[in-house]
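Project standup — Tuesday

K.O.: blocked on the structure for the chain from last sprint. Re-posting the sequence here as requested.
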Amino acid sequence: MCDVDVDKGVYCLLIRVSKDVSIVVGALGSIDFKKGYYVYVGSALGVLSKRIDRHLSLDKKKHWHVDYLLLDDNVDVCNVVYTQCTSKIECQVSVLIDKTANGSISGFGCSDCGCVSHLYYFEDYDDAFVSCCGSFRLLGYGVLERC
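H.V.: unblocked you, prediction finished:
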């Protein structure tokens, strides 16, 4: 289940959007993002630490949907909540977060699975944080943070 010696896992980016913005997100087109907090659920069954570093960097090419969002001047990552594991639990975490979110962006970050979304909207940071941590714990995984 959880192996703390591996650099693989599933993560949640807690993202703050400082004002209402409209961003063109690759093939998804123009998306309106409300001011508030978003949780992006991703996985790195290659090298987790490098994937997180990439998401936190502003020096990157736009490859994934989340890159388009993170490169906007009105957007920043507040926190990263993650678990180290070799299991493919990304979609399970996503489904659990969806149950507590105030909304989602349809099709975002889930082009390779059957989920409705991997990006969820929360009005409040604390609600987003609790949802992420609770999702990992409900699935029996520990929770780590990287601010």
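K.O.: great, moving the ticket to review. The radius of gyration is 14 Å. The chain has four helices and eight strands.
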